[in-house]
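Example record for the data management plan.
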Amino acid sequence: MGATRPLRADAERSVRTILEAAERVLSVNPGASMEQIAEAAGVARTTVHRRFANRQALVEAMAADVVRQLDEVLDAGRPETAPPLVALHEITANVLRVKIGWPFAMGVVFTDADSPAAEGKRRVDDRCLALLRRAREDGLLDAATDLDWARRVFYALIGEAVHGPDDGLGPDALAQRVVGTLLHGVGRVD
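Corresponding structural encoding:
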């Protein structure tokens, strides 16, 4: 978007509407045109182009927005202050809500290491590692746990919860399953 000053409230709503429509359309048809996205948003194609120079700019804005949502989810879970088990469950449930609601944007590959979305992902990764460190210090994870590996496994479990068979579980039940598996393995889950 490239604007250095904040958008007016109506322009912000327009951008939000376009991003949400783009997610709906692109998650069903990744090859959809800007015109199809504009139609789904209920705006003129020129409005989409005024906000996003091209399709790549729109996709990058979607990825940056989803990372912003993940930052908010992390903040809401209070990973630095809540008991680690509580924070893990809260954050996992809310991350699942974001991933379920924004599947296309969550799947964007960050090829530009300097993009806002890639920087945001690094920030999310660092905060996740800090939470897992607290979980290890609290005895939820073994003292010898490789935290980077645990983070990668945690992300994979979340991915499986989102993309696995639909067994009708909501985000809270899926979070319980993910956190239980992370902490106890695939055996008995407390």
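Summary line stored alongside the record: The chain has two domains: 1-53, 60-184.
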